[in-house]
Amino acid sequence: MFCRTICRILVAWSILIPAGSQAVDATEPLADARQRFTEAEGQEVPDFQRHVAPLLGRLGCNGRNCHGSFQGRGGFRLSLFGYDFPSDHEALTRGAAPRVSVANPDESLALRKPLGLEDHEGGQRLSEGSWQHHLLRRWIAAGANPMPRGGHRIERLQVEPAEVFSESTGEKIAVRATAFWSDGTAENVTSLCRFQTNDEHVARVDEHGVLTVGEPGDTHLIVYYDSAVVAVPVMRPAVSDSAGAIIAQSGRTELDRRVLTKLNKLRIVPSEICTDEEFLRRVSLDLAGTLPSAAEVERFLADGSSDKRAAKIEELLQTPAYAAWWTTRLCDYTGNNEQRLNNIDGIQANGASDWYDWIYRRVSRNEPYDRLMAGIVLGTSRNKDESYNDYCAAMSAIRRGDEGVHFFDRESMPYFWARRNFTSADDRAIGFAHSFLGVRLQCAQCHKHPFDQWTQSDFNGFKKFFEAVVAGNARPSPQSKRDYEAMIEELKLDEKKLKDNDRAKALAALLKKGRTVPFGETYVDFQRLRAKPRGRGKAANEVRAKILGGEEISLTSGEDPREAVMRWLRDPANPYFARAFVNRVWANYFHAGIVEPPDDMSLANPPSNALLLDYLAQEFIAHDFDMQWLHRQICNSDTYQRSWQSNATNRNDERNFSRAVPRRLPAEVAYDAISRATASDARASDYLQLVAGRAIGIAGSSGRLDRGGNNGARFALQVFGRSTRDSNCDCDRSMEASLLQTVYLQNDASVLAAIADAKNSWAQQIAREFTTAGEGDLPTIDRGIDQAFLRTLSRHPTPQDLERCREFFADSRSARDGLSGLLWALLNTKEFIVNH
Amino acid sequence: MAEYQTCDRVRRRDFIKIGAVAGGLTLTHFLRNAAAIEDSAPRATSGIFINLGGGPSHLDTFDLKPEAPAEYRGTFDPIATNVPGIAISEHLPKLAAQADKFAIVRGVSHTLAAHELGSRYVNTGNRPLASIEYPGIGAVVTKESEAFSDLPPFVAIPNTPQRAGFLGVQYSPLNTTQTPKPGAPFSVRGISLGNGLTIEEVERRQGLLRDLDRTFGALHEDSQLLEGLDRFSQQAFQIITSKRAREAFDVSRESPAFAEPFGKEPFGQSCLMATRLIEAGVRFVTINFGGWDTHQQNFTRLKTRLLPALDTGLAALFNGLSDKGLLSTTAVLVTGEFGRTPKINSRAAEGGRDHYPRCMFMLAAGGRVRGGQVLGGSDETASQPAGHGYSPADVIATYYRNMGIDPTREFLTNSGRPIMIVRDGQVIDSLLA
Q: Would you give the DSSP letter of residue B327?
């Protein structure tokens, strides 16, 4: 049979360890284990790390339901997903009832149980006389030795083919995996790997690494061996093209070209460019979190200039609404949650608003992303060289609201570290990885990450950077103690009698009287970083920490340990920092990230278009982390401006950005959209210039800190899934539709009032117009219908729409009723609540 | 029938449309139908969870130690109940008169002495972890149950610490946000027609909506969001215009004779609403009853306010469910986040008791629970379980079993991680008949 598989004999390198020696042993790799261990006896002794442990993984022994469970099973426990070789070896060979018997190998429980010769809850896993049986037995017979001290280090895992491209459903393709070790040896390990595909519809894989191609689409084959994880793209084009009818498209911008390279490969024809109405609505919602007003739509449609889309993007980038919406997103990623900031500096202060304002100031000035983040990563309460007294004087003035003093002018934003759920080094490592790297480190807290390279020792090395940061305490740093006590004495405060709330109240009262009061501090406690003496004649134990996937660093130099982490983030070679942000921004504009979910950047969850993500990240760094540059690139691309209308080749595409995928408006944007669509012309006019009073201007996570006095937002924001900013997950924001959202739109008293008779509502304004023109005045009705469409759907009604609406008005008790009914219907269309 | 993608990556049928097909189908009919299918495995089909926020003292309620030294014993005496051999606090006389309806689990023990952590544990059945948010019991039950299309499946009176967690927001409760007042009409935000709207007007608007909402046309086939929005639109209309949904929340519609025993306190009124909701077909109801954090004035607060309210409300709930024939199909669990220190503190004039997770109590009733029994026990000062004790996870695993849900089943998080419903619980067989 004619094989149409194009197996590019490029090589997929696992990007694991910065290679110490790139010299590849020229000798032929060892044959696969299934060939080398077919015989019961033989020269070669299997190795614990290279052969035995991976085989146990393949057989399922260390799965979470079997011996990998934290309680073990049947008195025998292995490390979950392997990789804790010493403890696994000990579990097999030591203890009251060792699982192996070197003296009498065939009596070993490790053989008898999986062979089914003895009661085994897990059933039979091995067949008598198989290579797996022989491999295990030969290892036991030779002494059941552990791996050499320090273990073997895998340099890379090479999987061939490096990319799979197939045109026929049902086609079978075998992959081969070769491990290259740091000692220069290489071995075919195909039989010892674990395999998985990320989309079973596109391709399935069996335990031997044989792929079966399924439906059109693209996915990845993931191969696991030792600590290596390798992703191999698998592509099955959407349509066959025997006649060569599908013409490869070339892109207008570099971004488009990278998208089209992939689409051409998959023979997906992208959708057309969207209409001006669609563009304006989409870009206003995505870039500035704001639904366009009727007047803005009319102006944009009337503009005849050829560069009006680029000009609109430029205009929106300069609005407060843009800064407010992206501040909201940055508060999501960094976890600005007022419940976790309760009374953090001892004065019952509102850290969430400071947090928001501090970021807002920098976004509106387009400060580079790396500098903005450095102010959070390196957050301390005191400015550089600021005395404790000066710090307290400055903070007292800020809290009093003194003219011209603002929190946002301070050098850094320390509240990220001060949150109540961010005090342990473990929580900080997990939260830091989420906020700045888009990496989920959680798994490695307790065991080898099953989908990534991280081990528990990587986790423990990384968290060391954060142990010495002291925050969330109402008290000063040790160096400030004397100044603090002097201040307390001067204020005549009795510290012993005043606990928590009473103390905070007393301080707040003094503050009001214009006094300078003491504030708590976020600082680095260098005491904790001092080398620990180990006794006479021995060098002191240094405190060391380890960059993820990088070097070990001594923390005893007297520098804030976070400086080293920040240097790593800024390093152009950092694989996460720029990528995570670029990808999150991308996910905001499209329905999904290039890596999806955006906060799961792991080896087993590769980008749908690596070239695209590389390009954006590299250029973002090259443009000095200029956030507006990034927004401009995306919004001006054809890729962003495509229609939601699909064609035969792309109707099922959701991951390659060949069309706009309809998606629900985010909570704050939806809330603001409802209020702008229903507000009087006068009130709706300046939404792009507004922050106060808008849902995108709310600082904390609950909607409680609405500074516009608009308390109705809280309920709606909860229903529409505003980010709870509580669990180190981008999924704290819900973008799903729900029944309650629809109930809200159809029947909530606040919405019904807004469309009927609320103060400053459009309904009220129009009612006045009808009073002047007369109830049944047709031109006024037509104008009302037209405006209602422009306000909600950002387009004029079609002739059928207009006809149907006139009927509805004729059938209504009053023009005013007709108008409320029409607004109700428009707010409840999918076209309104969906960005398209 | 439409399929929806849920966060566990499984396409499942959306809510079963019982109410829509046969509007008059009552719960009893529904249960009879369900029973016909699953005759061999009787189980509770609804649940009520009562959260005693703050952590009630076990020593002064359901685990008294009259023989203990005065600094432990406190001032309350035990009284006999209608079950020989079981005694509870003298301030719970109404519950004492029907101790045959519920089981007391003593010597429940854990190690989380902070309110939030303890509360998350008892509301989810899992010790909290930083890396994952476990779903509340109600969210799991909602996911695992069939529900009427014109009723919310999960209601919290007035709110609850139980969240949907990694299961996704669609399993979140509908919060009533307020508790009902005796005899006064009650409604929940958004679910009954407001602003003078009539059903006719809503239908007229729906007609216009259907005609205008056609832009996406054929795209529906390819978009679960668009299709889901259409379904929600129909369901919302059903709930809003449903007499049953509106009336279920309105405790003022209950007959005075039935309502009277529930008393006038918010907790009793919440219990009354819970019986109405369960009767109407709501699958899971939580009631929050806080104020049990009695670091000071433990005895005065218990005897004057907390215990009378608990006694009246809970006794009326058991009786009411029983009178309506619902107790055998409704699993009830009552618990705080921990017990309180056996030794009375002396910080104030009248001492109190502090947080104490090592020894606490829980109450279970309804469904397959064998009432009129005490399980487990504590030592002579109620300082630790006698014997091995139970964990909250054990009791909650049993609760799931009572509802016919396998507590060892796994759900996938949105990152594909499999998580057991109750990670570490052993079902307590003797609690169930």
A: G
Chain B nearest-CA distance from A648, in A, is: 12
**Which residue bears the tokens 């104008």?**
A783
B-chain residues within 8 Å CB-CB of A823?
none
**At residue B32, what are phi and psi to the nearest 5 degrees?**
-60, -45
Of residues B190, B194, B228, nearest to A737 (C-beta): B228
The alpha-helical segments, DSSP class H, found in A342-409 are 351-364, 369-377, 388-400
ipTM exceeds 0.90: no
Give the integer Cα–Cα distance in Å for B47 and B365. 10
Closest to A457 (Cα-Cα) out of A734, A150, A748: A150
Residue B320 structure tokens? 């009411």
Q: Is B348 on the interface with A (CB under 8 A)?
A: no
* Residues A667 and A653 sit within 8 Å (Cβ to Cβ): no
The Cα–Cα gap between A233 and A228 comes to 17
Query: What pTM, to 2 d.p., does this model score?
Result: 0.79
* DSSP reduced 3-state for B364: strand
Q: Cβ distance B333 to B49 under 8 Å? A: yes
pLDDT at A10: 37
**Residues near A462 by Cβ (< 8 Å), separated by ≥ 6?**
A429, A433, A441, A545, A546, A547, A548
Q: Does B379 touch chain A (CB under 8 A)?
A: no
Q: Is residue B232 within 8 angstroms of chain A, CB to CB?
A: yes
**Which of B189, B225, B240 has the CB atom closest to A737's CB atom?**
B225
May I ask the CATH class of domain A152-236?
mainly beta
The tokens for B422 are 């109750």
The two beta strands, B373-375 and B102-108, are: parallel
Measure the CA–CA gap between A440 and A435, rounded to whole angstroms.
Answer: 10
DSSP label of B328: G
CA angle at residue B203 from B202 to B204, to 5 degrees?
A: 90
Domain ranges of chain A: 48-141, 152-236, 338-570, 754-835
Whether A239 contacts A649, CB under 8 Å: yes
Q: What is the pLDDT of residue A500?
A: 66
> Which amino acid appears at position A81 of this protein?
F
- The residue type found at A212 is T
Of chain B, the end-to-end C-alpha distance in Å amounts to 38
Using a CB–CB cutoff of 8 Å, tell me whether B200 touches chain A: no
**How many helices (DSSP H) and strands (DSSP E) are in chain B?**
14, 16
Q: Which tokens is A266 given?
A: 């998959």
pLDDT tens per residue, range A102-145:
999 999 999 999 999 988 888 889 999 999 999 999 999 999 99
Is B204 in the A-facing interface, judged by CB distances under 8 Å?
A: yes
Q: What is the dihedral of CA A229, A92, A139, A37, to 10 degrees?
A: -50
Dihedral sign (CA A260, A658, A722, B174):
negative
> Within its chain, how far is the Cα of A683 from the centroid?
36
Alpha-helical segments (H) within A164-275:
254-266
Question: What is the tens place of the pLDDT at every residue in B316-326?
Answer: 999 999 999 99
Evaluate the CA torsion angle A649, A654, A659, A662 in order and state its sign. Answer: positive
* Fold of the domain spanning B3-193+241-431: Alkaline Phosphatase, subunit A (3.40.720)
Closest in B194, B225, B415 to A600, CB measured: B415
Nearest one of A208, A197, A195, A202 to A171, comparing CA atoms:
A202
Q: Does A742 contact B174 at a Cβ distance shorter than 8 Å?
A: no
DSSP A592-616: S-SSSSTT--BTTB--S-HHHHHHH
Spatial separation of the C-alpha atoms in residues A210 and A212, rounded to whole Å = 7
Report chain B residues whose CB lies below 8 A from the CB of A448: none
Q: Which of B163, B191, B157 is nearest to B175 (CA)?
A: B157
Of A731, A741, A752, the CB nearest to B194: A752
Nearest-CA distance B48 → chain A (Å) = 22
pLDDT number for residue B414: 62
